[in-house]
Design a protein that fits this description.
Four copies of one chain form a homotetramer.
Chain A: E1 2-6, H1 11-21, E2 27-32, H2 41-44, H3 62-67, E3 72-75, H4 82-91, E4 95-98, H5 108-115, E5 127-129, E6 144-146, H6 150-164, E7 174-179, H7 194-197, E8 202-203, H8 211-223, E9 230-235, E10 242-248, H9 256-267, E11 273-275, H10 284-287, E12 293-299, E13 306-312, H11 316-330
Parallel strand pairs in A: 1-2, 1-3, 3-4, 4-6, 5-6, 7-9, 11-12
Antiparallel strand pairs in A: 7-10, 8-9, 10-13, 12-13
Chain lengths: 341, 341, 341, 341
């Protein structure tokens, strides 16, 4: 099977290159980037040094993508740009796994509230939002699949099984997340310079970060009820990793044992979710480089709240690793192919 | 005036040395440390290279401290050890500013709940807990002053004026704080090795961190009501700095303008508190090296909560800088002497 | 084939666990550690979460290693301890790849000069020192193989082909290397605490770092002449990676083109050496996580010197990755099995 | 005395603001920046929060600088821009301390070789290059003073006394320096993004970094002979600090004791140079925040070389601190005013 990556100049594009270049079941036969077109891929990506020396970066023009013999495209494009590629590629019968926010929501109204007018709202219901551990098998049949955002993955993996099991309240959920700086992408702005972000931690994007839209839409499906989340993201001085600290109110009578049971039922045989033993809390350092989500839960007797912590690598389970995992499941490859558990 | 530092081998001890050595109004005439006794102070502390070359590290035995001509001692000792020094020094008529948790609480019961039996509970009411911007003038008259903890300072500075003004609820306060690794002290444990903490963020000390005891005691005084706080501290890979993200529920009818007014009333003429303009959030990088607290507030229309952010340097306003500020105010020195605003 | 890791509590031990657990051709059936004996391996190593849940950490007693059905042992033990295991294991017919310095030298005199009396000097000539790209095929036949040190690998890979080709002088070689802090191992000492090493760079181990012994022995073989190297190592605040800046004096008439030719001849078909294009210099960030060595060379017209730069991941090509590569070649597995180029 | 800072948007500009705002002997009455003109200085610089609230950022037009009542201007401008300001300001009788490279050389030919045509070569001999510990008293009388570069300061402070004393050879000096990322300035380029420079070390600017020009010119004066230096700078992942490892060849018969004597003679009473005890090597962490240079020397018996290490804070002794120190000496203020030793 031939795969292509559209828009490989950013951090998740680069991770896709690394993962797909060594994947045993697919051939990485196209990598596009406007800025880098014409350069050899092995000169652009250190991970390709000594590998794929024949591969040359292509321009990102839609017509040649449509005309190519690529079966599956990964779109690693900015929000609002993906849609311009998705439409013609779908019409040409290509399969798409999109890493942008363009197809993560069902509701055009919600999209409007957080991002503005959607340029192709009819596609919102022709696409599936897939966290592989939580999605229906049927979702993998869609030709257009939205790979979730990094913060949402860190929040939904621990929360959805508890919501589905009726153990926690939909209201009053509070999430504080800390992200490594690669989460901001490769943006040229003063604020992302080394000497600005090093030895610094700060909150940003409050009170209404865009990722809330997909978190709330997914939680409402899981709860069967409206969910308004208080979410505070922070930048911390490390390259990769997200740590989320989530405070939830258990329903009357719900016990921590039931919470563990709900997690076990959802994740017991899943290679990329690890439920930590009581007393342990996850550490981003333990998941960086892997596609794993590590989760823990503890009860605070003084407040009655449950405190949930989760960690992921924002560029792997939070972006490119999850996209490859989606492909693995969709095409029946080994789920862990090219990924570290 | 002659001052001494007892227990100078840790990070706050070292900061005290730096601040007091260059202080225009006091003479740093004694530095004690069991491990370092007998060495020249200028060989131990890089900040003293080329300075105070006559000063030799003393042993920490109580008798010689009592017999000395030092007027004021700063105790930079572990919790439970300070009390062993405070008692005889007080009896000998010395003044004390203590950086440990030994005298931060009024209530022996609360102390017991968080730390165990207090060895000298009678001292709890002979000592004052002082954040200089918030304490009564009378508090500075005590011979034994407890300098507050780092997390508590970052929480109490923004919260107390709002609590006193009756603008926020005592219940439902949630604080997530991120601390640089020096906050853990100079402890020899695997978990504090560079390669463990670098490129890592994790929550710890949940659900019942010891600093909750002083935060709650102080907030209860400010609210005139019980306050149970949900507090989640995190270690982030930087040397210094604390960022706190605090979620509070405003009282019915309370407005953000009133919150700013309460802050202005409390801090307008205070050199070490900076109320950020609307739309700005503080950054630890902007306070490291200074004794300042930067605070901001924003309303979340979706949840009805207020989000407060504050930043301090944990070793300065969170420890040694605040202790020096207490001395400056107590003795009528310039409040900013030896400190950067 | 069954493999075991002896002494897995340090950083290179942990990397060996990760690499061997996912290796397609071997079964990781024993991991020993005195401190961790009895614990499940998947609770000790995050990389084994959800994997190898049956594996329990063993004690490191020699008798049970000898009695086991393990074919090949990786020794990740401190210098001086490896030899205690190597002797009985060899006598029991086991194969050994040793990551310590115990068998890296041929000369007992040189060993004595840098490390003291060797406890089993007869083994020095029953062992092979193998950088796979540079060693004779015959070396892989030894039952006891010494995997090279991290600094030596970063120096020998670029230097040996130039020395063998007679292009550079054996005298006057000067190497300045910068290492991430994991290079110091998981040692509990003040100096390796996060807040000591972060935001810090310093030289150490001058003028006579122990790694000089193996560098000089190998270079003397390559030059056929005595080589005394000036070597200055430095610790820099990152987890992994070594960058070496090497200054050499070309022989009269030697050209940079000949240097590239010598490198090409040695490394053209090697998956783990990448010769950078003119004008590029290597970056540790580009090799961390891979088993690659990136090398570059430039001529300084003003001084007549050549400046060589090389980068490796100190825990992979500088330790555990190289050990696995040695195994791969020795047993005829794919050279890149379990390793990223 | 009134001072102004021209071009305060970069890192050394910001340090100048911090140092001059709290200086006891001068009034910081103008700060210019094209981008920031019109904003209040206290909103731009966190160090001015709660201070100098009256100060408004000015535009950088030459005419208004000339017309102002400022006595002394600090120029924190890019190379090639300073000269445009220096000329008219000098003609208007203003004093200038320039932090750029525009006036660091005497020789227009050397300037041409490293930077291109000098736009006002006649000024090269109307300006003085001043490292305060090494310059003649007469140099401070110049109206135009060039504050040295960061790497040159770290190299010249240890080398010049040894050169003047005739203890080392002018030829064969090799310097490897590691700089924190602020050394590159606040440049918007991919390579200076946090996620590019963090967890990375690399050499750059080889073989002919521009700072060589001033190092060699100053060393030639000290040696009275041509000096060609091999210099390799590296970027390491920290905000501030430079560590230089320098290899020199002692003259026949020269002893380490003589080296220490030469250093003592030059620096015994200097507050900002610290000669470390034998066996110690400097650490950037120990000088960051101070204006100090820490230096050490060791002899390598195997190679016959001396190894010198030095550390500075690149933004203080390497830039703005040194500029303020120059002012302090020039105007007879306390040499350490506003600076930490």
């Amino acid at each position: 099977m031939k795969v292509g990556i559209v828009g490989a100049s950013g951090y998740s594009g680069e991770e896709l290159v690394r993962l797909l270049a060594k994947h045993p079941d697919v051939e990485l036969s196209m990598i596009t980037s406007r800025q880098l077109a014409g350069q050899s891929a092995s000169s652009v990506f250190p991970a390709l040094r000594n590998m794929h020396e024949e591969l040359v970066m292509s321009d990102s023009d839609v017509a040649s993508l449509v005309a190519s013999d690529i079966d599956l495209f990964f779109l690693a494009l900015p929000h609002g740009v993906s849609v311009e590629y998705a439409k013609p590629l779908l019409e040409a019968g290509k399969q798409i796994i999109d890493l942008s926010a363009d197809f993560r929501l069902d509701s055009a109204d919600r999209y409007f509230e957080f991002y503005g007018e959607h340029p192709a709202p009819e596609l919102l219901n022709q696409s599936a939002y897939i966290i592989p551990e939580l999605a229906d098998k049927s979702a993998f049949g869609f030709n257009l699949i939205a790979s979730p955002g990094c913060y949402p993955t860190s929040l939904l993996v621990p929360l959805v099984p508890l919501a589905r099991a009726g153990l926690i309240n939909a209201q009053g959920i509070i999430a504080n997340s800390m992200s490594g700086v690669s989460g901001a992408g490769k943006k040229l702005a003063d604020t992302y310079l080394f000497a600005e972000r090093n030895e610094s931690v700060k909150a940003y994007g409050i009170p209404k970060h865009r990722h809330l839209s997909e978190v709330e839409e997914q939680l409402e499906k899981a709860f069967g009820a409206e969910a308004v989340i208080q979410f505070i993201p922070h930048l911390v001085p490390m390259n990769r990793g997200i740590q989320s600290s989530i405070i939830v109110k258990p329903k009357a009578g719900a016990s921590l044992e039931q919470a563990y049971e709900a997690w076990e039922a959802a994740y017991a045989d899943k290679p990329f979710v690890s439920i930590l033993a009581k007393g342990q809390t996850p550490d981003t350092a333990e998941v960086v480089g892997s596609n794993r989500v590590d989760i823990s839960i503890v009860e605070d007797m003084r407040t009655g709240n449950w405190i949930i912590n989760s960690c992921i690598d924002n560029l792997l389970k939070g972006a490119s690793g999850q996209a490859v995992q989606i492909m693995n499941v969709k095409y029946g490859f080994e789920e862990t192919a090219s990924l570290e558990p």
